[in-house]
């Protein structure tokens, strides 16, 4: 069956590039009205604006850094002014870096934590008054939360933290009819080129023989946004091709 999100009002953080962009466009094409945020002006934002206009519906792009409380407040206020409610909040915004743990500066640890865990905390808490019974909160985690990866201890820790946050919030918010889940992508091919040797290695590791796409992630997010997932709560769904 097709997923129809007509009438749904959704906030997606970090929606101008990569997986976030795929989620925004996937939800909009399924009929949802979407607010998304971005941190840096540029062609990615301009082209997304054009694509959303061609898709139809009511969509808004807001410049906001999810690690800054005042900017999160402005983002949520834009959602309240535009939609009055949020049927789903999708936390995609995040940052990553590759640093050996022994050399990891505290400032870089805090930057990753403030964005990848602090952002979801801020946005969820501030948006909560707008989420009605039947609403859905979706955290975009990562498959690395279960397996770990060298040089990304700080990043992995934040993605594992989202799993714990999800399990607690699913119980705390379930009584008011709000579901909370994690989508955990594996290797995803975005607009950034993948080195041939890396692509070949992943093709051997992934039983389906390919990297995932933003659309693969967007489909699962659309399911969790829709009423089809009304009894799915507190779980982490891997989108990784079986790696």
Describe this protein's structure.
This protein is of the alpha/beta class and 243 residues long. The chain has one domain: NAD(P)-binding Rossmann-like Domain (Rossmann fold), CATH 3.40.50.720. The chain is 45% helix and 14% strand. The protein is built from 8 helices and 7 strands. It has helices at 18-29, 43-55, 69-83, 106-127, 144-147, 153-174, 196-205, 214-225, and strands at residues 9-13, 33-38, 60-63, 88-91, 136-140, 179-185, 236-239. Strands 3-2-1-4-5-6-7 form a 7-stranded parallel sheet, with helices on both faces. Helix 1 packs across helix 8 (214-225) and helix 3 (69-83) packs parallel to helix 4. The longest helix has 22 residues, at 106-127. The relative contact order is 0.16. This is SDR family NAD(P)-dependent oxidoreductase. Residues 8-191 form the Ketoreductase domain.
């Amino acid at each position: 069956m097709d997923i129809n999100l007509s009438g749904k009002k959704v906030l997606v953080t970090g929606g101008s590039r990569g997986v976030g962009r795929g989620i925004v466009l996937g939800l909009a094409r399924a009929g949802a009205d979407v607010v998304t945020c971005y941190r840096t002006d540029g062609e990615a934002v301009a082209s997304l604006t054009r694509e959303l206009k061609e898709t139809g519906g009511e969509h808004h792009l807001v410049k906001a850094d999810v690690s800054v409380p005042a900017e999160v407040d402005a983002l949520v206020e834009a959602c309240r002014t535009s939609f009055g409610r949020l049927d789903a909040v999708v936390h995609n915004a995040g940052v990553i870096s590759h640093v050996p743990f022994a050399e990891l500066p505290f400032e870089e640890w805090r930057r990753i934590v403030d964005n990848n865990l602090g952002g979801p905390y801020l946005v969820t808490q501030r948006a909560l008054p707008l989420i009605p019974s039947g609403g859905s909160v979706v955290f975009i985690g990562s498959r690395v939360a279960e397996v770990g990866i060298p040089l990304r201890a700080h990043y992995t820790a934040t993605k594992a933290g989202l799993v714990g946050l999800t399990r607690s919030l699913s119980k705390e918010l379930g009584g008011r009819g709000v579901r909370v889940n994690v989508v955990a992508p594996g290797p995803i091919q975005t607009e950034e080129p993948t080195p041939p040797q890396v692509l070949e290695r992943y093709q051997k590791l992934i039983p389906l023989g390919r990297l995932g796409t933003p659309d693969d992630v967007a489909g699962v997010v659309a399911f969790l946004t829709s009423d089809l997932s009304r009894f799915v709560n507190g779980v982490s769904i891997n989108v990784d091709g079986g790696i």
